[in-house]
Specification:
The complex is a heterodimer of chains A (609) and B (170).
Chain A lengths: L8 H35 L3 E8 L5 E11 L2 E16 L1 H5 L3 E16 L19 H12 L25 H27 L2 H15 L3 H66 L6 H30 L7 E4 L9 E4 L9 E12 L7 E11 L2 H4 L3 E10 L5 E9 L5 E12 L2 E4 L4 E4 L2 E11 L2 E10 L3 E4 L10 H15 L4 E9 L4 E7 H77 L6
Parallel strand pairs in A: 4-7
Antiparallel strand pairs in A: 1-2, 2-3, 3-4, 5-6, 7-8, 8-9, 9-10, 10-11, 11-14, 12-13, 13-16, 14-15, 15-17, 17-18
Helix pairs in contact in A: 3-7, 4-6, 4-10, 5-6, 5-10, 6-10, 7-10, 9-10
Chain B lengths: L1 H14 L4 H16 L5 H12 L4 H17 L1 H12 L5 H9 L11 H31 L1 H4 L3 H7 L2 H9 L2
Helix pairs in contact in B: 1-4, 2-3, 2-4, 2-7, 5-7
Classes of the chains: A alpha+beta (609), B mainly alpha (170).
Chain lengths: 609, 170
């Protein structure tokens, strides 16, 4: 019996040919429908593609007439492109990889009108909306940057110093630590002294010195004098050995004493921390200029810098560094998706690579951003270590429609090893955001100005600077909101602050961020802070100083006694140890001197020296 | 309707003229299509083997049908087995070759479910073949004679699907 079913061979080959033929025939419409369906699902509004052509043999992929609807404005396109031409590598495609040698984009425009609505039917009972991925990252980042907004409320209230709890004060913790350390240092000294036990040696030396004090050759005899000299020498050696031990013990005791001293000094420093902590509980405003910038603008700037963090996260996720195995969720299918593991290796094609993309973009309308732009991306890949070169990009404005405006964004993503990313973006003459003034019930509309962003990342460390500069600002007071000032005093303060700020015409706000994504540090510098600080000082200087004094007095009352006790105990332990050691050493020195003098007398006797 | 077709396949597979070995091997091969995600390159290879060799086609279909629910149920197991294989440093060169070699890369063997289910199927292939062959032989010796007298059985045997099956009968 044959193992091969020959009669099935021909039908199978025919089926195979049929599948190949159908694929070639229907590939273009399938690609078009796939892009439309996938794009619509991703954007949440209609994505239309007039034509798609896939050249299987030459690797040319052409997409023509792409329109992506703006989900928030269904009669407007978010982006529209006349033609996108991709030159795709055939050989890498056989390995399931996408290698695009060149991308040429023609006629990309933003915000163009649509002939028909691009809205898609919404479910009648939509599921509760989850926060977007961008929102989640921004919220996480903002949770790390906690700066209380500028608050004037407490100034006109009675300062409630009872809110300061003794247990939360660092001074008390430091004082307890000093007392505890002093106790254990005393125990160590007692045990060490007991182990050293200098008394027998000193007493024995004293007895010998006493015995020889009135002795001479006549009373001792020659043999007795020789024996006495030997005893004196041995005892002096014993005293020297004891002296060495005492010195060593003294050194270790001195180390403990120094440590006690350091801890006592820490109690003093802790008090400064407690003053600041207690002050923060009462939310007294600071007159310090560096502190006012963050208080005024931290919420809005943390939000904006959070957006930068989102893109840093995205770069990390989709452009993983190094040659390590990376994991991602498997493809969506009826069965479980599982996990797909990537095995990068050098000198092969990465999973995705666009060697060169040149795009010409146009933003329509008459707005500030309207105009022609050019973008150039080199070496865009999902496996930079495999590709072996960083991704570089440049976006610049070729021609603006309105006014002298300039835009230039350059940067690179180098994830071949430790991630090193950089971004520099400068927009001049563009509309800047309106910045709410936290705690003051108003905002400053920056108008047209300069925005300069510099971000640099080296491994976990992240540093950057975002500068907004405008010479034509408008101050907007939130008149619709409920009045913030509840007392005449507060109204006075608010009015004074507003008067001071509205005199400012040119504003510069600079946010500097550093640290890591998980432990960020944000500093804000602004010339508005100078005006606010001066106005606050003029209006509230005396009141704030009085409140601060109350806070300090309360902290002092809570910690003074404990700190004094701790200091006293520390001093007592240190003095006791020093005094006892000094006494023992004095006795030792005295006995040694007496014995040495006696030895000098003895060695003068002929036959003994 | 689906249940009827399944019964038809079952009866034809178990009572075909093929030897118990041919039916058993057909069923063991068919397990692969049910256990692993259908759109996998290795399934195309298994399908070609089933059609081009003289294993029992109804047996193959029966094995597939049996394994489909099993495949869904065992996905967590396949995921674990697959991850263990993919994370094994000793196998990394082999997987690196697979994912970077033209055409072979389409097999998606770097996916935990695909490689896990394939590994489980390969491990189960020989035992499954032996068990199925034994069961078919026992069935034919003890149950078939009584079943053949039932009218339902005769009706199914006379259907068009059975005639189509005859084309591929070993």
């Amino acid at each position: 019996m044959s193992w091969i079913r020959w009669k099935a061979l021909v039908p199978l080959v025919l089926v195979l040919l049929l599948v190949v033929g159908a694929t070639i025939l229907f590939l273009d419409p399938a690609v078009r429908r796939g892009i439309e369906a996938g794009g619509t699902a991703a954007v949440g509004a209609k994505v239309d593609l007039a034509r798609a052509h896939v050249g299987i043999l030459d690797g040319h992929v052409t997409l023509a007439g792409l329109q992506v609807t703006d989900p928030s404005a269904p009669m407007t396109n978010l982006v529209e492109a006349d033609a996108l031409v991709f030159d795709v590598g055939i050989l890498p495609a056989l390995s399931g990889k996408v290698v695009i040698d060149t991308v040429a984009a023609r006629g990309i425009r933003f915000g163009t009108p649509r002939r028909t609505s691009g809205a898609i039917p919404q479910p009648s009972d939509p599921a509760p909306e989850e926060p977007s991925a961008v929102r989640k990252v921004i919220d996480e980042w903002m949770a790390q940057v906690k700066v209380p907004p500028l608050s004037l409320e407490t100034l006109t209230q009675t300062v409630n110093v009872d809110a300061i709890s003794a247990e939360s004060l660092a001074t008390l913790r430091a004082a307890r630590a000093v007392a505890s350390f002093a106790d254990s240092a005393r125990d160590r000294f007692t045990a060490g002294y007991r182990a050293l036990d200098p008394r027998p040696t000193i007493d024995s030396a004293e007895a010998l010195a006493t015995r020889l004090r009135s002795a001479n050759l006549r009373t001792l005899g020659l043999a007795g004098a020789r024996q006495a000299a030997t005893d004196v020498r041995r005892t002096i050696r014993d005293l020297d050995a004891l002296d060495d031990k005492l010195k060593a013990f003294e050194r270790s005791t001195r180390a403990d004493a120094d440590s006690i001293k350091g801890r006592v000094e820490a109690v003093g420093r802790a008090r400064a921390t407690d003053y600041a902590y207690a002050k923060s509980l009462l939310r007294l405003p600071s007159f310090e200029i560096p502190a006012i910038g963050p208080q005024l603008f931290s919420p809005i700037i943390a939000e904006k810098v959070g957006e930068v963090m989102y893109w840093v996260n995205m770069a990390e996720r989709y452009v993983p560094p190094g040659m390590k195995r990376s994991m991602e969720q498997g493809p969506a299918r009826v069965r479980a998706s599982g996990t797909t593991v990537r095995f990068p290796v050098e000198k092969v094609y990465p999973d995705f690579l666009a060697r060169l993309a040149e795009l010409s973009l146009a933003i329509g309308g008459e707005g500030a951003a309207a105009g022609e732009y050019q973008a150039r991306i080199v070496g865009l890949t999902t496996q930079p270590a495999v590709y072996g070169a960083p991704t570089r990009f440049l976006v610049s404005r070729a021609e603006g429609k309105v006014g002298p405006r300039d835009a230039r964004i350059t940067g690179s993503l180098d994830h071949r090893g430790t991630p090193r990313d950089s971004l520099t973006a400068t927009l001049t003459g563009f509309p800047l955001p309106t910045m709410p003034l936290a705690g003051l019930g108003g905002a400053v509309a920056l108008g047209d100005g300069t925005s300069a962003l510099v971000v640099a990342r080296d491994g976990d460390r992240l540093g950057g600077r975002w500068l907004w500069r405008s010479t034509a600002v408008r101050w907007q007071r939130d008149s619709a909101a409920a009045p913030r000032a509840t007392t005449p005093a507060m109204r006075l303060v608010e009015e004074a602050l507003w008067r001071a700020m509205t005199r400012i015409e040119a504003v510069e706000i600079e946010a500097r961020f550093s640290g890591s994504v998980t432990r960020p540090e944000l500093a804000v510098r602004t010339n508005i802070a100078d005006a606010v600080a001066n106005a606050l000082k003029a209006q509230l200087g005396e009141e704030v100083r009085r409140a601060e004094q109350q806070v300090r007095a309360r902290v002092d009352a809570l910690v003074d006694q404990k700190a004094r006790e701790a200091r006293a105990k520390a001093d007592e332990v240190r003095q006791q140890a020093e005094q006892r050691l000094a006494e023992e050493r004095a006795k030792l020195e005295a006995q040694k001197a007496a014995l040495e003098a006696r030895l000098r007398d003895l060695v003068r006797i002929p036959g003994i020296g | 309707m689906l249940i009827l077709k399944f019964l038809q396949t079952l009866i034809k597979a178990l009572n075909s003229d093929g030897t118990p070995g041919q039916v058993g091997m057909g069923m063991a091969l068919g397990l692969c299509l049910g256990l692993s995600p259908l759109m996998s390159l290795h399934n195309l290879v298994v399908l070609a083997i089933a059609f081009l060799t003289t294993v029992s086609i109804p047996g193959f279909m029966l094995g597939w049908a049996i394994a489909v629910p099993l495949g869904f149920a065992l996905d967590p197991v396949f995921d674990r087995v697959g991850m263990a294989l993919l994370m094994n440093d000793g196998l990394a060169p082999a997987f690196t070759w697979v994912v970077n070699t033209p055409v072979v890369a389409w097999s998606r063997l770097n996916n935990s479910i695909v490689v896990g289910s394939l590994a489980v199927w390969l491990a189960a292939l020989l035992p499954a073949f032996l068990v199925f062959r034994y069961l078919v032989a026992k069935y034919r010796a003890h149950v078939f004679a009584r079943l053949e007298r039932l009218k339902v059985f005769q009706a199914i045997k006379a259907s068009k699907l059975y005639q189509m099956y005859e084309m591929f009968r070993p």
